[in-house]
Amino acid sequence: MNADINVDEVVDARDLMCPMPVLAATKAMRRLMPNQVIKVLATDKGALSDIPAWAEDNGYELLSSDTEDGVLIFFIRKTEEQI
Amino acid sequence: MTSELHTQSETPIASGLCEEDIRRIVREEIKQAWTKNPASRRAALVASKGTLDWAYPPLILGTAAAAAGLETSVFFTFYGLNIIHKDFERKLKVDPVGNPAMPMPMPLPMPDVLTGMPGMKALSTKMMKSKFAKNHVATIGTLLNEARELGVRLIGCQMTIDVFGYSHSDFRDGVEFAGAAAFMSEARKAHVTMFI
Fold first, then answer.
1. Nearest by CB: A54 against B68, B138, B149
2. What is the pTM assigned to this prediction?
3. Residue B174: strand, helix, or coil
4. The complex's ipTM?
5. Same domain, B29 and B85
């Protein structure tokens, strides 16, 4: 359903518990350039609130969040100007 | 934004600014001030406890703060020094004695006389570690490495290091050393402060 989103890096945080999905996403974002996009896969239910909060804190754009077969899937864009 | 507000403040309110406009402007100005304030980008935590269970909160919250884009310092004092000691694996234990919340990892409720038996501390430590591993919770070692990689400053309290007879070489690479006033100076520049 998000086939049109161009993903620059996939962060597979499945089976990792808080705070590891957010830490993995942070390290991926630091490697990326503005406007690039990461896809985060997580099974930690806490990620449902953690990833959007983390994105907001960093000024990143949460493009979408979905669940597929019990896996949470987030698309997040690194924005041009961070707060 | 700022210039826009100045222009508006020079004109009388009667010129058409309604209450809703003023509220919007105030909201935007507050948001701006908040994001510009360096204190909103800093976190300062104190880790004062030296057991396995209490080693988690400062490391989880410290790394999460760094992930949220905050410049984060954790000040390890008193028993909290165990966490940044090179021998943390051996030092961090969990003891069921005097811990009414402890039956969590125990298969059966434990009367107090049993929790005080020899070997119970080692057993409960082992059980907590295996329970955490089974649930894919990161180890203390992993969180310490993450903290370093994310740029969390780990600061050992010089006074308690001296009192406990430690030397700087007893602690992990990258650990800094400071006193209470130096930490306070960090903490007063941070909106997020926690004593753990």
1. B68
2. 0.81
3. coil
4. 0.84
5. no
